[in-house]
Amino acid sequence: MGEVMEMTEVRQSVSDLPVQDPPGEEFSAADLRWVKYASSEHHCDDVALIPYDRMEAFISGECNNPEYPTRFHIERGRKRERGTLKEVRSDDYLLYRMYWCSFGPENYGEGGTILPSRRYRLNTRNRAARPQSMRGCTCHFAIKRLYARPSLALIIYHERRHVNKSGFVCHGPLDRDAIGPGARKVPYVGSEIQQQTMSLIYLGVPEENILQTHIEGIQRYCGSDAKVDSLASQYVHKLGMIIKRSTHELDLDDQASIRMWVDRNKKSVFFHQDSTETDAFVLGIQTEWQLQQMIRFGHQNILASHSSFGVSKLKYPLHTILVFDSRQQALPVAWVITRSVTKHDTSRWMKALTSRIHSVDSNWRIGGFIIDDPTSELDPIRNVFSCPIFFSLWHIRRTWLKNIIKKCSNTEVQREIFTQLGKFMYSIWSEKNPMDVLEQLFQDFVDQTTFIQYFKSFWVPKLGKNLRDVD
Question: Out of the domains of life, which is the source (predicted)?
């Protein structure tokens, strides 16, 4: 992280600290002048004061440290509302978040505080090609948005060194023992990249697309290099073969097999409901990496649901929850496998998902929810997420076209109805009243009773309610 000069003077109030705003798109701890601050009689930390709107620039700078490349995840967070404190101290917060290096705090090493180097050939038929990435790193800091001065953020660095509890460097290019074979040539691939790559393989994304995404992730750490790209290609291919060869049939009885799998993967399962006479089978899956992406990109942004049917041997629908990153690319942040679309079951897994998010960041909220299945129940989404609901335009038009072809025999009439429905869709964003356009449609095609009855009974209630929400 670079050497920083320690101050002998200890400050007693945040009001005495200077506000620092280093130039550039991002900056790190090495660019700040740290001061000792005594928050209590027995507690003293390194602190710095920066503008609140530059908080993300600081976090990005810390992640891209060449000596200790990493990502920081939100370990926990709290929030206060204005006016809730009668007496305000200089370091009281409106928003508090604890950020921890993603190589910690737990250590998943085998039999020690340092993960062993792999200097021998492994049987990788049932194991990943690299060790797990949580290596007991103790580096962590907190950021407070100040109650008295909301435009400022106080950074409190509890541990600036990327070391484990024994004081040893535990990840990055300086850690020769924990990276594995070829450590001097290839920096360690963190859990974020590894889990993203595994998620894409499980989704069935073509290998060349997965490889491109994997290499982009590695290049954020170590830059472009032909050797790195070659080894990355081998890694992705090998990981794909391991996943394809693995079996998830742990027992001849399907329910017993699922229970065993859930028990072995507790950290990645946010909801599980067995199939009974009264309850439908529901399985909600979310990895730690997906949880962090949902917190990072889902807050105050759009969440989307993508439904796939008939993709498995058991013909169970797969519902994928998506967020959109800074480049507006969709990231899968949770999967739900179930046949049930009832309000009761949908509410249960949605509440379990949001509870898991709020256990890390109680301030997390979304700005809207996009659905692609017109048969979905809307009330659970409104009750759980308290946000506007949008239909996927492409999926709606595809559904309309299928039903027009099915319920109208005349090709010319099919074309005219589809054109009129397109005008209705675009009138939503114009000054025209969308419902007036629909009424005109019903009058023009009053003889097409089968399609008009279907549209009035199924779509008008859904569209009408959502149009009122938009208003």
Answer: Eukaryota
Per-residue confidence (pLDDT) for residue 182, from 0 to 100: 43
Residue 338: phi, psi to the nearest 5?
-170, 155
pLDDT of residue 249: 66
Question: For 176-324, where are the E strands, in sequence order?
Answer: 269-273, 282-285, 302-308, 318-324
Residues 6+ apart with CB under 8 A from 212: none
The amino acid at residue 346 is T
**How much is the pLDDT for 156?**
94
**Cut 0.70: pTM above it:** no
Between CA 428 and CA 411 the distance in angstroms is 27
Per the CB < 8 A criterion, the answer to whether 372 and 395 are in contact is yes
Alpha-carbon span 215 to 109, nearest angstrom: 26
What the block records as the tokens of 345 is 């079951």
Backbone phi, psi, residue 113, to 5°: -85, -10
Cβ within 8 Å of residue 426, ≥6 positions away:
none
Mean pLDDT split into 10-residue runs, the chain, 471 residues: 46 85 90 83 82 93 83 87 86 92 71 38 33 73 93 93 81 57 46 74 83 80 68 81 69 81 88 89 91 91 78 66 87 90 90 93 90 76 88 80 89 89 75 76 88 86 56 36
Q: Which of 274, 321, 281 is nearest to 301 (CA)?
A: 321
Bridge pairing between strands 10-11 and 35-40 = parallel
Which residue do the tokens 């519902």 mark?
319
Closest by Cα among 364, 366, 367, 363 to 93: 363
* C-alpha span between 323 and 296 (Å, rounded): 9
- The token pair at 369 is 């929810």
The residue among 91, 87, 99 whose CA lies nearest residue 154 is 91
DSSP codes joined into one string, 157-193: EEE-S-B-TTS-B-SSTT-HHHH-TTTTTS----HHH
Q: Is the dihedral of CA 457, 458, 463, 469 positive or negative?
A: positive
CB 102 within 8 Å of CB 70: yes
- How far CA 270 is from CA of 247, 302, 362, 455, in Å, comes to 22, 21, 17, 37
**Residue spans of alpha helices (H) in 26-85:** 55-63
Q: What are the φ and ψ backbone dihedral angles of 256, each rounded to 5 degrees?
A: -65, -40
